[in-house]
Design goal:
Low-confidence stretches: none
Largest sheet: 3 strands, antiparallel
Radius of gyration: 70 Å
CATH class of the domain at 190-316: Alpha Beta
Structural class: mainly alpha
Strand order of the largest sheet: 1-2-3
Distance between the termini: 111 Å
Order of helices and strands: HHHHHEEEHEHE
CATH architecture of the domain at 190-316: 3-Layer(aba) Sandwich
CATH superfamily of the domain at 190-316: P-loop containing nucleotide triphosphate hydrolases
Mean pLDDT: 82
CATH topology of the domain at 190-316: Rossmann fold
Helix content: 55-70%
Length: 353
């Protein structure tokens, strides 16, 4: 609407200009006496006094003199003023509308942002609630699986109770039989007496220092560990726990192992047919303790040629003591050195580094 009013105002202003030009032209040409045509320059015909000399029409001298031009200009000015007031009023209204539009746009943007935040919060709350429901559902499913698995436990527990009662009966029976067998074994001390005698014999024949023929060997239940008491009134007791010397303790243990094998061979019971003796001469010098060194080896050779003839003995020691020539015993000796290729150690690639 504003553009139409402006165009209308501009058309009126153009018309006003044309009117002023026409009046100016008329004022200029009003007193001109035309004798020839201004277009073709030919001689004009004679006209009457009240006719136009150019076009031959009646002159409106009264209209020209009556002030129509001034009224037309006044009307034009009034109309232009009205149009300008209308245009100015419309401009003010448009400015207000634009400000209101901008304000509404800002309000819309604020509402859109609030709506976006609200939607995000709603989505987050919905997602959190959905996840919580999903977790609860998974937990319930897992609990259902667990309950389905353990629902058989009562019957299993009842079965285990019945089995425990049966085993308790068997256990009491076995314990009773074991106690009876233990009591019978404790009453029959013949094998234990033989073992104690054989142990003392091994200690004496191995020439282990500190032991005499009148010493007393005891092996008390329930562990049956050997203890040697002095027979001449000596209160000292020799056992695995009281021996402090490394060399004497090794010989003590080796003699007890030989006594066990001698007893097994005598009563013909089952034991391994081989024995490994590692470093019996630990902390015992073959030069300073020659008697012990030779005594233990001679004992071992004598037993291997007589009572323990069917047993293989592997002896690992720092020095070799050959058997007596009169003994019927097969001996194989191997010398092992760390830095030798012809006499390699037990582990061939080991060189002490």
């Amino acid at each position: 609407m504003n553009a139409n009013d402006r165009r209308h105002r501009n058309e009126i202003l153009a018309l006003s200009t044309k009117v002023r030009r026409l009046e100016s032209a008329r004022a200029v040409l009003n007193d001109v006496e035309f004798t020839t045509c201004p277009r073709c320059t030919r001689q004009l015909p004679a006209r009457g006094e009240d006719l136009c000399h150019v076009c031959g029409q009646a002159d409106d001298v009264e209209g020209e003199e009556s002030g129509d031009g001034e009224r037309t200009q006044a009307d034009i000015a009034s109309r232009v003023k009205e149009l300008e007031e209308t245009i100015e009023s419309q401009a003010v209204q448009i400015s207000r509308i634009r400000r209101r539009r901008e304000e509404l746009i800002r309000q819309k943007q604020t509402v859109d942002q609030e709506l976006t935040v609200a939607m995000e919060q709603y989505d987050s709350a919905y997602l959190a609630e959905a996840l919580a429901i999903e977790r609860d559902s998974a937990a319930l499913s897992q609990e259902q699986i667990y309950l389905s698995r353990i629902k058989v436990l009562p019957s299993r527990v009842e079965q285990q109770k019945q089995r425990a009662e049966s085993l308790a009966t068997d256990e009491s029976t076995t314990r009773r039989e074991l106690n009876e067998a233990r009591a019978a074994a404790e009453q029959d001390l013949s094998n234990l007496q033989k073992l104690m005698k054989l142990f003392l014999d091994c200690l004496l024949r191995a020439k282990v220092p500190g032991f005499e023929a009148d010493d007393i060997v005891q092996m008390n239940p329930p562990w049956f560990l050997p203890e040697v008491h002095g027979g001449s009134g000596d209160l000292a007791t020799t056992s695995f726990s009281t021996l402090g010397s490394g060399g004497k303790k090794n010989l003590f243990k080796c003699c007890f192992a030989l006594a066990v094998h001698r007893l097994a061979a005598e009563i013909k019971t089952l034991l391994p047919t081989f024995m490994v003796i590692d470093s019996p001469m630990k902390n015992i010098s073959e030069r300073e303790n020659r008697t012990q060194f030779e005594g233990f080896h001679h004992l071992l050779y004598e037993l291997c040629s007589s009572e323990l003839a069917g047993m293989q003995v592997i002896l690992i020691d720092k020095e070799y003591c050959p058997p007596a020539e009169e003994l019927d015993v097969s001996v194989t000796s191997r010398h092992m050195r760390v830095d030798s290729d012809t006499e390699p150690p037990l582990i061939p690639y080991y060189r002490g580094k």
